[in-house]
Each structure stands twice: as structure tokens, then as C-alpha cells.
């Protein structure tokens, strides 16, 4: 099973609920992650991200945007999260970076074509934007 080969596993809310048969995402995440190695998290759209860190479930709020199209938001989140991890951003920053990217995507139409630029994500996070 591929899940045992990865170091960072982030599920959609629907997938985790179906796998654990538990509707409470914090409980479902803890039940699934406890005793397993690596990182586990679950995205829940506008409700944010639940992250299993050091034996505890931590909740990260979603960024508030006027949602016009959620198509591709999960793909944008996962891509931005992978980028942030590759850049060695600390886990909380990687989650916020990915969440900002997904929120910006949801604020515009176009699936993957609505994905934001790096500069847009950095601005949303209040970070300085360098380069062009």
C-alpha cells in the first residue's frame, strides 16, 4: 500500500471520514495517525486543516476569501505543501503556505488555471516578495 511508503500523508475530509467511519475529523485523524510513523493531516476546505503533530491534533484556520470555484483547490494545496516541504519550511509555515495558495485559487475561476503565483501567496502571508 502506497500510504506506508510516504512520509507526509494529507487526506481530504471525505476520504478520511470514509476510511475511519468517523465524522469528527480531529478524532478520525488521531485514530488513523496514532502509532504510525510520519506526518498525517487532513484538509477540510473552508474549515481549515487538521494536523497530527507530536501526538496531538492541531487545527489551522483557513484563509477567508470569497469563494467562486473550488475546482483544483486540493491539487493546489498539495502542490504548494510539497513545494514548501522541499524548501524546508517548518511544518506550520508549510501548512499556511499551502492553505494560502488554495484559498487564492478558490477566489478565482478556472481549476488549475486559477492557481496563484508565488508572489500572490507571499503577499497573502504578509511576506516580502522578491524577484519578478
Describe the structure.
- The radius of gyration is 15 Å and the shape is globular.
- It has 2 domains: 1-62; 63-132.
- A 4-stranded mixed β-sheet has the order 1-2-3-4.
- The chain has helices at residues 13-20, 25-33, 73-86, 91-106, 118-124, and strands at residues 8-12, 39-43, 49-53, 56-60.
- The chain is an alpha+beta fold.
- The mean pLDDT is 93.
- It starts with 7 loop residues before the first strand and ends in an 8-residue tail after the last helix.
- Helix 1 (13-20) packs across helix 2 (25-33) and helix 4 packs across helix 5.
Instruction: Tally the helices.
Output: 5
Strand content: 15-25%
Quickly give the structural class: alpha+beta
Strand order in the largest sheet: 1-2-3-4
Order of helices and strands: EHHEEEHHH
Question: How many β-strand runs?
Answer: 4
Classify the oligomer. single chain
Please outline the major beta sheet.
Answer: 4 strands, mixed
Detail the poorly predicted runs. none
Q: Helix amount, in percent?
A: 40-55%
Key words describing this protein structure:
globular, 132 residues, four-stranded mixed sheet, 41% helix, alpha+beta, single chain, 2 domains
What's the layout of helices and strands?
Layout: E1 8-12, H1 13-20, H2 25-33, E2 39-43, E3 49-53, E4 56-60, H3 73-86, H4 91-106, H5 118-124
Helix pairs in contact: 1-2, 3-4, 4-5
Amino acid at each position: 500500500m502506497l500510504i506506508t511508503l510516504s512520509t507526509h500523508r494529507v487526506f481530504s475530509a471525505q476520504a478520511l471520514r470514509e476510511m475511519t467511519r468517523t465524522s469528527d475529523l480531529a478524532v478520525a485523524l488521531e485514530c488513523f495517525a496514532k502509532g504510525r510513523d510520519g506526518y498525517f493531516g487532513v484538509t477540510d476546505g473552508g474549515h481549515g486543516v487538521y494536523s497530527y503533530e507530536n501526538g496531538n491534533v492541531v487545527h489551522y484556520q483557513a484563509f477567508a476569501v470569497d469563494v467562486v470555484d473550488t475546482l483544483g483547490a486540493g491539487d493546489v494545496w498539495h502542490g504548494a505543501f510539497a513545494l514548501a516541504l522541499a524548501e524546508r519550511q517548518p511544518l506550520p509555515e508549510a501548512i499556511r503556505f499551502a492553505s494560502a495558495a488554495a484559498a487564492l485559487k478558490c477566489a478565482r475561476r478556472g481549476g488549475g488555471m486559477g492557481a496563484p503565483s508565488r508572489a500572490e501567496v507571499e503577499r497573502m502571508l504578509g511576506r516580502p516578495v522578491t524577484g519578478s
